[in-house]
UniProtKB/TrEMBL annotation:
GO terms for molecular function: ATP binding; ATP hydrolysis activity. The lineage of its organism: Bacteria, Bacillati, Actinomycetota, Actinomycetes, Kitasatosporales. Keywords: ATP-binding, Nucleotide-binding, Transport. It comes from the Bacteria. Pfam families: ABC_tran. SMART domains: AAA (SM00382). This is ATP-binding cassette domain-containing protein. Belongs to the ABC transporter superfamily. Residues 2-227 form the ABC transporter domain.
Length: 306
């Protein structure tokens, strides 16, 4: 579990993280979202003791990071791929890490197999693809078998197979009861991976809720229908107090109504339907709606994660 209590970080006059209070729970993948410059990286750095809070507190399983006796046994993090010694083999890189952190040597081949690097364990990372570097970073994070795992933009630069693999790994770790905290700017990917969301904007908490609730609360849901008699359908809907919107392809979109009700209305009036489909908004739409006011650099769009 990761607990944030009014966590705050200022850089001069910039408030990067502003009184953030929330808890990242075990057993689910929690997505960490926010526009560029929202304060995600700063928050993650403070969680790992790499940055000191200006005010407030962050606790890892009830302790401050720098008071954990063997940090790698509590929290593993993938912050940036390629943060490995380029001349050292994957096996040696992990061995050094294990030795300096009191982790048994037998974990090294275990995690190499877990991330699918068993066959290249004795090769030097400088010949690694980005995906292999990412897998090695994940192996390092898993080495101490920590209960908490943090991934900052883990799928950046990966091919579809690598993305699929990381997604399943994160879900597997959560199903094992671990706390999995992941940031990504790829909304479609996040929608497939995370069950819970923490969203920040300008350093402040904007949402701390399930993926399902987040999408429901922050987007328009509607039903799309097509009929060969759109004019008559409009009249029927108007009588029922509903105002459809016509689309370019000749369909009608109706807000604030269940598809069941529309189907029944059509049947009552002998109207043929060629399509009746409830439209679920995407995470991206919900995110854009919620963060529209909080977007700090939307005119630039060139920063990290743009
Ligand atoms: P995100 O990861 O969500 O893109 P960051 O945590 O990187 O956001 O940045 C949050 C804010 O803090 C931004 O305005 C950024 O410019 C500022 N910031 C981050 N790190 C530093 C730093 N070392 N010095 C000064 N300002 C910083």
């Amino acid at each position: 579990m990761i607990e944030l209590d009014r966590l705050t970080k200022r850089y001069g006059t910039t408030v990067a993280v502003d009184q953030l209070t929330c808890t990242v729970q075990p057993g689910v993948v929690t997505g960490f979202l926010g526009p560029n410059g929202a304060g995600k990286s700063t928050t993650m750095r403070m969680m790992l003791g790499l940055d000191r809070p200006t005010a407030g507190d962050v606790r890892i399983d009830g302790e401050h990071y720098d008071r954990l006796r063997d940090p790698l046994n509590h929290i593993g993090a993938l912050l940036e791929a390629k943060a490995v010694h380029p001349g050292r083999t994957a096996y040696n890189h992990l061995t050094v890490l294990a030795q300096s952190n009191g982790i048994p040597q037998k974990r090294v081949p275990e995690v190499l197999d877990l991330v699918g690097l068993g066959s290249v364990a004795k090769k030097r990372p400088k010949g690694f693809s980005l995906g292999m570097g990412q897998r090695l970073g994940i192996a390092s994070a898993l080495l101490g078998d920590p209960k908490i795992l943090m991934f900052d933009e883990p799928v950046n630069g990966l091919d579809p197979e690598g993305i699929h693999w990381i997604r399943n790994l994160m879900k597997y770790l959560a199903s094992e009861g671990k706390t999995v905290f992941v940031s990504s700017h790829l909304m479609s990917e996040m929608a497939l991976t995370a069950e819970h969301l923490i969203v920040i904007g300008r350093g402040r908490l904007l949402a701390d809720t399930s993926m399902r609730e987040f999408i429901k609360e922050n987007s328009r849901s509607y039903v799309r229908l097509r009929t060969p008699e759109p004019e008559r359908m409009r009249d029927v809907l108007a009588t029922a107090g509903l105002t459809p919107v016509a689309t370019e392809d000749g369909a009608l979109e109706v807000d604030s109504v269940e598809s069941d009700r529309l189907g029944e209305l059509a049947a009552e009036h002998g109207l043929v339907l060629h399509e009746l489909s409830p439209q679920q908004a995407s995470l991206e739409e919900a995110f854009m709606q919620l963060t529209a006011e909080a977007v700090q650099y939307h005119a630039h769009g060139t920063g990290k994660g743009a």
